[in-house]
Design a protein that fits this description.
Shape: elongated
Strand content: 5-15%
Helix content: 40-55%
Number of helices: 6
Distance between the termini: 26 Å
Strand order of the largest sheet: 3-5-4
Largest sheet: 3 strands, antiparallel
Order of helices and strands: EEHHHHEHEEH
């Protein structure tokens, strides 16, 4: 089982959830194998694009414990509310006119009590967490390319 260093302690890789810790361990791996990598590869794998650490910082700041997308709830109620696509909405007779439908269709959920009175209402929000989703997608693309290229050059 691969071990990584987090807070100066060895941990099994599956017990490390910080994207920043994973990245630091990757950089340490590169440095520990620098002589071999430089002798074997044509590409300078030590020239990491500035965008990668910036994306990692955005993700780490947003979800340090990597729980936001793994569990239905977190330790932060504000984050839980931000990640759910259904947002509380005050439903009135003219509420349909206030819902912005320009970004696609909306789901409206009405909760009634036993007397058929609306006691809660929600409207869907498809544009939740777009910034963090974009950062995650971009980082995945960048790191996949980095991994593929390095692995290809080391094994050819």
């Amino acid at each position: 089982m691969p071990l990584l260093i987090e807070n100066n302690k060895e941990k099994k890789i599956f017990n490390v959830h910080s994207i920043n810790t994973l990245f630091i361990n990757f950089l340490n791996f590169l440095e520990d194998n620098k002589k071999y990598i430089l002798a074997t590869c044509e590409t300078n794998w030590f020239d990491i694009p500035d965008e990668i650490p910036q994306l990692i910082e955005i993700i780490e700041e947003f979800d340090k414990n990597s729980t936001m997308f793994r569990y239905p709830i977190t330790m932060n109620k504000d984050f839980d509310y931000r990640k759910t696509p259904l947002k509380k909405f005050t439903f009135t007779q003219d509420s349909g006119e206030k819902i912005d439908k320009s970004k696609g269709s909306k789901i409206i959920l009405l909760v009634e009590n036993q007397d058929n009175e609306i006691v809660e209402s929600y409207v869907s929000d498809d544009n939740i967490l777009t910034g963090i989703h974009e950062a995650l997608k971009e980082l995945a693309t960048q790191v996949s390319g980095l991994h593929f290229g390095l692995k290809f050059e080391l094994t050819k």
